[in-house]
Design brief:
The chain is an alpha/beta fold. It has one domain: Rossmann fold (3-Layer(aba) Sandwich), CATH 3.40.50.300. About 40% of the residues lie in helices and about 10% in strands. The protein has a four-stranded parallel beta sheet with strand order 3-2-1-4, sandwiched between helices. The chain is globular, with a radius of gyration of 16 Å. The termini are far apart.
């Protein structure tokens, strides 16, 4: 049995296979759980491990500014500043508009209640990246921006 300090190529971090009941699939993984159980940290580790292994990443955030994402990752030993600087980590900012932020990042959604705008921004961030990892943190935050989105998903 693998020890917690050993990591297989199908893990996000040592021991993560136990959290997701097996290897992380190469296509999509939907993390669901109560607030505060570590979904965001898991997602940040997923992006970071991809970057370290040469896979670009796109991180869409509805709850943190790009700077705060970088700072929190750094506190967990994941310094992503160089990846942001060389554009292999692209942070889509769906947060700053909430606090009236005018200084949005390169990939900023100024109207996240319009899912078409969000989709266009994701496509813009994906351009010229081959096989990028994508995190949407969080779907709940994204859907809560607009009542008609919630009505659609509650049916």
């Amino acid at each position: 049995m693998e020890g917690l300090n050993q990591m297989s190529k199908h893990e996000v971090f040592p021991g993560s296979k136990r959290l997701v009941e097996g290897a992380v699939p190469p296509t999509s993984l939907f993390l669901m759980g109560a607030s505060g159980i570590g979904k965001t940290i898991f997602s940040k580790q997923f992006i970071y491990n991809g970057l370290v292994n040469g896979e670009p990443g796109i991180y869409l955030s509805t709850d943190e500014s790009p700077r705060r994402i970088q700072d929190s990752m750094k506190r967990f030993g994941m310094n992503v500043d160089a990846y942001v600087d060389n554009d292999t980590l692209r942070i889509i900012d769906c947060y700053s508009w909430k606090i009236g932020g005018k200084d949005c990042s390169k990939y900023c959604v100024s109207n996240p209640d319009n899912l078409a705008t969000v989709s266009i921004t994701i496509d813009k961030a994906r351009r010229d990246l081959k096989k990028a990892r994508l995190v949407l943190d969080s779907i709940t935050g994204l859907m809560s921006f607009c009542d008609h989105n919630l009505k659609f998903f509650s049916k």
